[in-house]
Give the backbone structure.
Amino acid sequence: MPAPKFESFPNPPILEPEWPDSQDIEQWIAALKQSQEMNYKMISLNAWVLSETMDRFLPGFWSRFMANRQIAHKQFLQRMQKRHQQAGANSEDLQAGGTGQGLAERDPTGSSSH
C-alpha cells in the first residue's frame, strides 16, 4: 500500500483579523449603554402613559393594578421559596444515596426551572 502524501494538501496562510481600535470599541460600548438607558426610559414612559390613560377611563385602575401586582409578587416569592426548599431536600436525598425519585413525585412536569 502506498504511503499517503500529506504535502499535496497546501495549508492556507493564516491571516490575522483586523481588530478595531480600543477607542472604537469603547465608543460602541458607550453607544450601547446610552441606547439601553433610552430603551428603559421609553418603557417607563409607555407604562406611565398607559396607566394614566387607563386611570382616566377606569378611575382607581392604577391603585388596583398595584394591589394586584403586590399580591402576585408575594405569591411568586412563596412559590420560589417552596421550590428552593424542595430542591434543598432533594439534594440531601441524593447526597444520602437516594435516587432522586422524590423530585419526580413532587413536580409532575419534571422541570426544576425557575
About this structure: Helices lie at 22-57, 61-95, 101-106. Residues 4 and 10 are 14 Å apart (CA to CA).
